[in-house]
Design a protein that fits this description.
Elements: H1 3-30, E1 37-41, H2 47-62, E2 66-70, H3 78-86, E3 95-98, H4 107-114, E4 118-122, E5 133-137, H5 139-153, E6 157-164, H6 170-188, E7 197-205, H7 210-223, E8 227-232, H8 237-247, E9 255-259, H9 263-270, E10 276-279, H10 282-298, E11 310-314, E12 317-319, H11 324-343
Parallel strand pairs: 1-2, 1-3, 3-4, 4-5, 5-11, 6-7, 6-8, 8-9, 9-10
Antiparallel strand pairs: 10-12
Length: 352
């Protein structure tokens, strides 16, 4: 073999060894994408939040993430949720998902977490924070949709009492604003004196406390004997309205429009006591948030919001007696799929 050919093969061999060495070094340095360690911080432990948690578990399993779910002991407790945030050990986490109960009051704390790890919000947002993204319902649009449902239930107008947990959650601020704007527009439509007139007698806050909500309902009935409609803007309001109005002998005499899909609420639609409910997708919200947080932690460049404040919104669906059976069937299939997903052998241990 000629000296020239030996030199050529030596050069090729050296190049090959160098390439293999470089590839091995890179793989050793970076390794495979890490298994994200995620924590989801809910706003309570009621049925809505349980559905969201189920979605988060399914999403974490699908996208190979370790998951911890934390919930305030008291429903919608800002102080307890804040304590949970303050107690997080960020050295043990790669990503945090939170549904903030006080958008403005918790912004600084969310910013502190976002300076260390990936943080996204779900269901309710903290838009002035530095969280990386948000997954939730378009609540201003949901409020407007609710107003349209009320106008259909009360074609001749009337007095309306609106129940809500608080005015600190961004989703409720938007929901309330959309409802007020649209119901005012409907009242002002048409020539003067021809449009039905709707009067909001009050927005009654209960901070997630059932006893306060019951008192608000009874006070509205006492102070407004001609009240025509209750709007319940949170999941728990449908069941509470049904129970209190039954006790007061008003069930079926006052129009009810609610949010979300607790069993009692859907039963109330079937029985004709609730005109309609605005259905969100808490399971889907939890699932999509787990997916988004997982890929953000892994650094997927196609998922990182280019302006740093990206958000992903879904709409609501009006559920009434006409489509109730179909909606229940969709819920059943979703639940079966979730159970199948959670009962299959896990790829990574998931804690809750």
């Amino acid at each position: 073999m000629s000296t020239q050919r030996i030199a050529l093969w030596t050069f090729v061999l050296i190049g090959f060894v160098a390439a293999v060495g470089y590839r091995t070094s890179v793989m050793r340095e970076h390794g495979p994408p890490p298994t994200p360690r995620l924590v989801f911080i809910m706003g309570g432990s009621g049925p809505f939040w349980q559905l969201t948690a189920n979605g988060a578990k399914a999403g974490a399993k699908k996208y190979d993430a370790q998951l911890t779910i934390l919930m305030p002991a008291a429903e919608e407790s800002v102080s307890q949720q804040t304590e949970i945030l303050q107690g997080l050990d960020m050295s043990e986490l790669d990503g945090v998902a939170i549904s903030p109960l006080d958008a403005k009051g918790q912004t600084d704390l969310i910013n502190q977490l976002a300076n260390k790890k990936i943080v996204v919000t779900f269901d309710s947002d903290a838009p002035e924070s530095t969280r990386q993204s948000h997954v939730g319902t378009s609540n201003f649009s949901a409020g407007r949709a609710c107003a349209r449902v009320v106008s259909k239930a009360l074609p001749n107008g009337g007095k309306i009492a609106v129940l809500l947990v608080n005015s600190t959650k961004e989703n409720l601020i938007d929901r309330k604003g959309g409802f007020r704007e649209r119901i005012t527009q409907i009242s002002d439509d048409g020539p003067q004196g021809s449009a039905p007139k709707y009067t909001i007698v009050g927005f009654f806050e209960d901070n997630g406390k059932e006893v306060v909500c019951e008192r608000n309902i009874r006070d509205a009935l006492t102070n407004h004997p001609d009240l025509a409609c209750f709007v319940g803007m949170n999941a728990q309001h449908g069941p509470i309205l049904l129970r209190v109005l039954k006790e007061e002998g008003k069930l079926g005499k006052i129009k009810l429009v609610t949010f979300d899909t607790e069993k009692e609420t859907l039963d109330g639609i079937e029985d004709g006591y609730i005109d309609a409910t605005l259905a969100q997708d808490p399971f889907g919200c939890g699932y999509k948030t787990a997916r988004l947080l997982s890929v953000l932690v892994r650094g997927d460049p196609f998922e990182v919001p280019i302006v740093g404040t990206g958000a992903y919104y879904s709409g609501v669906e009006v559920v009434d007696r006409e489509n109730l059976a179909e909606f229940r069937e969709l819920l059943r299939k979703q639940q079966e799929a979730a159970e199948e997903q959670n009962n299959s052998p896990p790829t990574k241990k998931t804690a809750s």
